[in-house]
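Hey, quick one: can you model this chain's 3D structure?
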Amino acid sequence: MLDHLRHINQRRAVLRTAIDITGNFDHWKESCVPSYCHKNFAAAYVSWLRLFKVAEIARQCVPNYRKVVDFGSSVGELGHLLRDDAEYHFIEQDEAAAGFLMDQHPDAMRETLEAAPGGHFDIVFAIDSLEHNENFKDLLNKLFALLAPGGVLILSGPTENSLYKFGRKLAGFSGDYHVTTIFEIEAAAGTESNCVARTTVPFGAPLFMVSAWQKAGSAKTTN
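Sure thing. Here's the predicted structure for all 223 residues.
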């Protein structure tokens, strides 16, 4: 717990120093940056907690993972929670977010979904990204194609339930940036794979779902 709090405080300070969130809110509103840096620490903590859960599930499902790709990475906060020896690739369309990520992760490798090597990655992350896309089923197929045998796709997204909507309102966030829900995304993933891990964030109050998916009959990854 104390390690989590120290990490959050350190990263919030970096983000607030480097990014003018208030002055450029319209640019960053669809990213998680405003949530990470929210003045209400309890509200911000929920967003950070889902990253900790994602990293935890990654270790549980593929303990010796080496090659990962972060789809819709935004500023790459997930990358700070992965194994030190992980080869971190990312896919991000926004140039400001990608530039900040590369400053923070000099060894990171930027990819496009079309050019990323198929069958290459132990873990593909899609963290609060697919719900922004109407073509999420097509994107899921492309993300599954990036996995090495035994690899897992880790998904996260807001539940869009009444508690989540109330929390957004309480936190001062307005607007609707999502065109689908994590439940629809998981249902689509289930046609291609088996769910091997799932949890809610925070525990007992399902604001976000985090789950891991593996192709049926996929051989175990060895490293």
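One thing worth noting: The longest strand covers residues 147-158.
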